[in-house]
Amino acid sequence: MNISKKVSVLASLLLGITGIISMNACRHGPYVLPVNLRVGDPNICFEHDILPIFQSNCAKSNCHDASSGASGYVLDNYADIVKKGIVPGNPAASKIWQSISMKIFNVSVMPRDAPLLSAKDLDLIRRWIATGAIDSGACSNITCDTTAFTYSGTIAPMMQTYCVGCHNSAAASGGSLNDYTSVMQAAVNGRMIGDISHSPGYNAMPLGGSMLEDCQITQIRKWVAAGAPNN
Ligand code: HEC
Question: Which residue out of 68, 117, 155, 167 has the highest number of ligand 1 atoms within 8 Å of its CB and is therefore the one to mutate?
């Protein structure tokens, strides 16, 4: 067992014990936000901001995709994500939040054997749960501007949200998309454009997830057409 496996076994035990204690200590379950107060956060859209984090970091093969469903958690669609492990309005009582935010000896329990979620992604998930964990449908907060396509402002954050959960290092299947050189090579010399456009003969990316929006694909195409600069 490597250190992060040990840590996650220990953490599972702790979560189990705290669960039993809290069940005995309190006859009522944890606080759940009433349905009429689950209004969401106007700056968070489930499909656009939250689902890609789960698809990229959790719904991998042997982990939480539909065919693996490790520990009973399938984390590639709204219904299954909220079915187990999310208590609307109460991040602290949500098993999914506990596992991604709890660190033991500075190792997070989940994602196992993979980098921590970024502070930005953790904050989005916490706010999404706190405001009711709703599937907000059409995303009015999305501003995708096809005239904006710098590496640091647009391309790198997009890779972080949609791709780096799987493509976190050169050793990852399909290679790294976690630094400028790797992204540039995949985009300019590699198969990235065909993959994200779901072109015939390519591997549809993000693997198992929803296709990027047209506007996002346009931003990547324009960046490549501009010579894929490190700007
Ligand atoms: C859930 C995991 C996962 C996510 C998320 C993901 N990929 Fe992949 N990717 C893979 C795997 C696995 C491969 C290896 C080929 C295969 O098995 O399909 C791969 C291969 C690739 C390759 C190598 C060329 C090829 O076609 O094999 C590129 C380029 C790529 N992915 C781009 C992306 C981009 C861009 C994103 C984000 C928009 C992304 N991937 C998101 C798992 C993922």
Answer: 167
- Quick one: which of 107, 91, 87 has its CA closest to 10? 107
Q: Is residue 128 within 8 Å of 47, Cβ to Cβ? A: no
163 lines ligand 1 (CB under 6 A): yes
Q: Which amino acid is at 31?
A: Y
Q: Using CA atoms, how far apart are residues 65 and 231, in angstroms rounded to an integer?
A: 35
Q: 163 and 210 in contact (C-beta within 8 Å)?
A: no
198-225 residue pLDDT tens: 999 999 999 988 899 999 999 999 999 9
Q: Residues 6 or more apart from 113 whose CB is under 8 A from it? A: 2, 4, 5
* Closest residue by Cα to residue 122 from 161, 148, 81: 161
Amino acid, res. 151: Y
CB 120 within 8 A of CB 53: no
Residues 6 or more apart in contact with residue 63 via CB below 8 angstroms: 70, 111, 112
Angle ∠(78,73,88) on CA atoms, nearest 5:
50
pLDDT digits (tens, 9 = 90+) for 160-180: 989 998 999 999 999 999 999
160 CA distance to ligand 1 middle (Å): 13
> What does the block give as tokens for 22?
């809290």
174 close to ligand 1 (CB < 6 Angstrom):
yes
How far apart are the C-alpha atoms of 157 and 25, rounded to whole Å? 44
